[in-house]
Amino acid sequence: MASEVLKVGLVQLCVSDDPALNLPVTAGLIREAAAAGAEFVLTPEATNLLSPDSAWKEQVLRHESEDPTLAALRALAAELGIWLLIGSLSLRAEDPSDHRALNRSFLIAPDGQIAARYDKIHMFDVTISEVESYRESAGFRPGSQAVVVNGPAPLGLSVCYDVRFAYLYRKLAQAGARILTVPAAFNDTTGAAHWEVLLRARAIETGCFVLAPAQCGTHPTPHSENARPRRTWGHSLAVAPWGEVLADGGTEPGVTLVTLDLGAVDGARSRVPSLTHDRDFTGP
Ligand SMILES: O=C(O)CNC(=O)[C@H](CS)NC(=O)CCC(=O)C(=O)O
Fold first, then answer.
1. How far is the CA of 141 from the centre of ligand 1 (A)?
2. Is ligand 1 within 6 A of the CB of residue 134?
3. CA nearest 121: which of 139, 93, 142?
């Protein structure tokens, strides 16, 4: 590893349903993070848009090769010379017979090249209450490939609802990850109850840093005037391998800076080597 210390910027967004409105805001916050010294900048799930309207998404989503947000953010990473995790983009699938979109995370290298892609594996098909339910699998095609990639450190990629599936993170860590990325658009209700404890548990179980850039606030939908406004929890979080919260992005859009001492991964794992203590068992 070139350096044991890594300066990170977590970008917190409140995206609308219009990628063209969101991009300049996102780019401005990435610039702000880089100007403050961040070498690794991360954006949330659904960086290009959040929309409840499948007809509008059909119109506005693009293939990866033609997506304007991806092209612009690759160029920006190259200009600034930073590692950039685009938490995810909603993209039109390559396969024309599948109407469902992709929820795809990208690691961009400091030369602007795509270093890794990850398609969210676990779909948020959940009825939270009588007035709030989500059927992510109706609009998105799940991935089936876990990804560890050598970025600014060895990274294990995931997205949002994946955080509830502990075995994914155990595999990522056992495959070499030292930082786990969990970009998210967590809803208010489960955010208040579960967000921090899930992220801290994943860090403690794996002895990894956890970086979780989040969407926040009430998301404007200028293209679907009558939609019930969606609210997300915010609180972008950086968690250390021993479980401490190093930084919390609060509830407003902005940049949260945090310096990681990557040696803390070995420190936590040597104190509690549970990652090497798996056993086979029978039942239940
Ligand atoms: O819909 C999009 O465009 C982008 N995808 C999301 O926002 C997804 C699916 S609705 N959100 C989550 O997974 C929240 C999980 C969550 O809140 C929990 O696990 O409690």
1. 13
2. yes
3. 142
